């Protein structure tokens, strides 16, 4: 069936494979009148581009985007925004020797079984390059959020056993891991290099915060803000867990510890004195900062010998060559941020019609 | 907007509030020809019914279901199945004194802000009674899964700090917590009663396993099996986290530890020698057991004094009376199971058209 | 699959069969704060109720509706509105002798082939009683439209060869055909009674006008206002054609005859000097009155002898007894009106997010 | 909101404007394993290409398509198929002098009001070039239908007052109007040239037949086959009416004339002795040929002087230059056919899960 569209009102449809001609996204339902340029999108694509540091793949892609429709005189027109990135550095040959093997930890086997055959070049649609479409969608969503004063920021919370101890947005930009703690980043670098030496890979946790959300965004009972953020995160290839606010830790707390009290602030607005909920109550934003985390597994492509089977049903031992990230966490940060922005933009649009009074405000002359 | 429908092909729409006349669900897209009776559904509803033990609310509801449409001569007809449960034991008065207060940890404030006013009786739509519709949907999904030999089982993995040390499906039925470990259940009982004495509440973790899944179920890239399970879980009121397979622990493993090797079994099928992935690769079932967990926060309704504000913006201290579970985990087990069954049933139907060969098999004469 | 939901933002899900326990609808996505009572809905249901005149079925149903959820203190809460009508006067026996025959012009054969078996009592889900859910949805939509000053009115344009020559809204209420022309209605009565004498049935055309629409409602390119009205109309059992504005006649006009000129009105707004377009340009409302027509086929249940086949593949001659309308046009008028109201309400909500400026108007403090 | 996607399971999302960089479509949900080449698509695009005869626009576009994703080793992979056509012959200057005027019969005014501003170049998204994406989607759908032995054929039924008197599929290819009657085509040519001389334009009716449909395709009650065909047709820019089988004529027939009798054929299958229904009963295919018609209005762009208003609210008289078809019917034939194929392909996929027995056939080993 068709699973390449995310969102109901702000809809992002992605397409493209690792070694196809191009990848891209069509964004439908974006309101008209928002300034949008290729630079706005390129800025985000550059953050996921490979080849930026020693811990990312050597594949060299400029990933230049081209806006093909939906923008006129620098502004969105309300019609579908189609954005494309051409593939250029495709080393299909790298995959030939293992092209008929199911790589452990990858989607080769499941793709083959589901569809009856598969594009074995670089994982095809299950490649990390598929996230280009997500980042395009996220960059467009960012423009909507910007108009409403909402800021979404993701960063690396931990690499393997190494966790950031502080939160400094400046330091995020200063180390190759996008960690808000340069000291932790240094320890992480050592940790990753040990894994590289052992022909191995590592995982980590990405945290994301959303500031400036109005209260009440999210659609009970199934399209709750946290439910859709969870879907958005788990839809990213390597993500294996999601939690919001206290998350799994909440299961060990008592109600009196986990509840956030309400008070009235000096400017007469309702505030919470703590934020154990992570900014969501009943599936709707509660006016506090939204805080969630996604767990990223270690890259499955490792150059150690691994046991597996071939499409024809024979067993084989393989070693994966090619250009792979020993850790995808740093490059996944912008993907987490993008999916969060798409989710929030969609729900912000959906929420507009929650009250009859809102609708009258638009139509009344 | 409209967020009360789950699923694309097997669609469950729930309706009803805590203190309204009734609650129910409409299931659309259920294949024709499946035997279905009210008993099939009642069996599941009874598992979430209140008043079953000392650790659940004293609200006394028989929660008898009535099938109103979609079944003829004992079988589903392919048309919408409408099922209703009447509310009977509604103590609206219990809520009057705090009716204008925003209860900490509840959705009162967010509902009020989103919709401009709210049904203050027992949480209205955000009440735990909303899950009746989910359990109805799950019971119908169970009939589809049963035809395909798929079994979904949820149970309590931990209560607060007390974790089950073994997995015995028999013992699940022998203790009030649905824990697969009677020893742990005893410890949990002590743990919960301490909280009750302190006018407090506790949370826990529910684990769910799915056996018998064919390979390749789940729709890349956004409607992945794990992505939709995550959405399904986080859409349940008190759930704050989701993980599959190694989950958050995967972030600390190396690739060589987390990858599952493929081998050929004695009956010539592809198997994995381990199951760190939790039964999902690339968002599709990989033929192994699916294993995921949901973190449940402690019940927000506690009878300690709490600080909060009123709808009119004044601060107040409240004590919540009424009939509340000091822990909702045991009653949420069947809700987790139901949402998992709905998710899996929907994706099983979606997957049928993945190959042209499948479609020809149906239409060829 | 699941085809019982209409609309994307204002979503109406209908359920129920002719001879089941009940029929109803769940309306999800209705904005909060709209006054709604059972009387509001009953008023519309009464217009489609059988037994109102000599030209409708003798089946005696009071069709009393019950609101089960979604309304609190007389206003919509933003949560799903569930409304039910119990069946009472079910003469299942009437169908026994032809229960295994495929009635000509009915959906018996196609239902049987699609689902493998069928509810043969009164057409099951394909009965005219299915429209109860549509009228419920329409009555709720009417409340939204009323808040925005939009009025939808359907009436009988023609019965067989007899066409209304004038448009008087008062006369609509004065004759049993809801024709805006009492003279024509008299001729129609004669026409219908001739058919009844011949054990036959007749069809007709229903016209619908929508006044007060704001400009720009409708979502290019597939969810255009006229495209969704067409879908809405053809989804009604007996409707075989749809046209808007000049409709089929436009195919015979020249561009200079069919184009509507724009001018500026005295109050400085843009107006069209004619309305050949029927109020829609490019799939969006153009500010003029929306005018469309639906062609209704003659009732297929006639008491003449007809040739057909049985489920077991044998040929048979049947005579249909039971209680059938010799013409369903008069009772279909409110169904056409209801589907139009649902369509327009949905698109009005969808349109709110067309401009970033609208969204800011809601969220800006 | 987002209205650029058609279909639920076989989903076609189109994008692009008349004078943007490119136009295209993303097809999601296409089953894997279907042979597909650019030639398969180009063949259909060539049928809608401008410049093919004296009665079409002189705009010279080669409309070469490029498949960007979703096909590997000549077969569909089950992942999204992205296809693009670059614009080349863009005479934006042609529009400058009337760029601020609302052209009569066009969507200029409604686009401007809905979105707050508009792409005035050649109609932007409301241009006939938007149909390129539809034809791409139709060409892919054609491959699915071909695997199932289903054939969809559209042709011109009438041009203005000139109607085809016979049906010869060969003659369709022999005249510039795609009329199945060369004599009528000659009369139509004369008719059109008279209009051209008068600086005017003409409309017509397109008929479409579908052969080989299995019984039971279409999803009651809202996603009926005829309801979705009606939506598909009315979503095409210039279409103002839709009818199936007897259509509007049915409103004048008696039940005994309009009903189709069932009989058993020599090969023991159920057949209808007539086909007044147009191949649809209860919204599902009934095994007969599906026959429907779409009414196309005369091209609104005419070179006569027309009255209109400017964006700034001033009245003006305009003459439309540029390159316009005096009749769009011949080029719309392939668009009608494409939309029909998309609709039917989508419903064929949806129908697969109607019976539990079908699903077991796929999953049972």
Could you list some keywords that capture this structure?
globular, Chorismate synthase, AroC fold, alpha+beta, 365 residues, homotetramer, 18 strands
Describe this structure in words.
Four copies of one chain form a homotetramer. Chain A has a five-stranded antiparallel sheet with strand order 1-2-3-7-4. Chain A has a five-stranded antiparallel sheet with strand order 9-8-10-16-11. Chain A has a two-stranded antiparallel ribbon with strand order 5-6. The model of chain A has no long low-confidence stretch (mean pLDDT 94). Chain A has a single domain (5-363), classed as 4-Layer Sandwich (Chorismate synthase, AroC fold), CATH 3.60.150. Helix content of chain A is 28%, strand content 22%. In chain A, a hairpin with a 2-residue loop joins strand 5 (71-72) and strand 6. The longest helix of chain A has 23 residues, at 329-351. Chain A is built from nine helices and 18 strands. Chain A has 365 residues and is of the alpha+beta class. The first copy, chain A, is globular and about 65 Å long. Chains in contact: A-B, A-C, A-D, B-C, B-D, C-D.
């Amino acid at each position: 069936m068709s699973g390449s569209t995310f969102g109901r009102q702000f809809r992002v449809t992605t397409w493209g494979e690792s070694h196809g001609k191009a990848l891209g996204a069509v964004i439908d339902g974006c309101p008209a009148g928002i300034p949008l340029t290729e630079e706005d999108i390129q800025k985000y694509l550059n953050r996921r581009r490979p080849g930026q540091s020693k811990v990312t793949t050597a594949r060299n892609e400029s990933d230049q985007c081209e806006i093909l429709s939906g923008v006129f005189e620098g502004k969105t027109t309300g019609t579908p925004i189609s954005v494309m990135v051409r593939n250029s550095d495709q080393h299909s040959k790298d995959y030939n020797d293992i092209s008929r093997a199911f790589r452990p930890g990858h989607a080769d086997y499941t793709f083959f079984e589901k569809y009856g055959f598969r594009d074995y070049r670089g994982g095809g649609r299950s490649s990390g390059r598929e996230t280009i479409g997500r980042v395009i969608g996220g960059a467009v969503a960012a423009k909507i959020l910007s108009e409403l004063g909402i800021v979404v920021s993701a960063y690396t919370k931990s690499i393997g056993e190494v966790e950031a101890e502080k939160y400094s947005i400046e330091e995020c930009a200063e180390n190759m891991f996008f960690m808000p703690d340069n000291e932790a980043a240094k320890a992480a670098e050592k940790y990753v290099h040990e894994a590289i030496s052992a022909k191995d890979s590592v995982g980590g946790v990405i945290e994301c915060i959303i500031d400036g959300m109005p209260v009440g965004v999210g659609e009970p009972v199934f399209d709750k803000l946290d439910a859709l953020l969870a879907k958005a995160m788990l839809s990213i290839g390597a993500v294996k867990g999601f939690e919001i606010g206290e998350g799994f830790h909440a299961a060990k707390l008592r109600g009196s510890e986990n509840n956030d009290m309400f008070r009235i602030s000096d400017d007469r607005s309702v505030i919470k004195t703590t934020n154990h909920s992570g900014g969501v109550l009943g599936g709707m934003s509660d006016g506090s900062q939204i805080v969630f985390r996604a767990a990223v597994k270690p890259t499955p492509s490792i150059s150690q010998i691994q046991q597996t089977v071939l499409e024809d049903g024979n067993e084989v031992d393989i070693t994966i060559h090619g250009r792979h990230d020993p850790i995808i966490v740093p490059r996944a940060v912008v993907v987490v941020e993008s999916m969060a922005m798409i989710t929030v933009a969609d729900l912000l649009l959906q929420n507009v019609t929650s009250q009859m009074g809102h609708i009258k405000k638009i139509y009344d002359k």
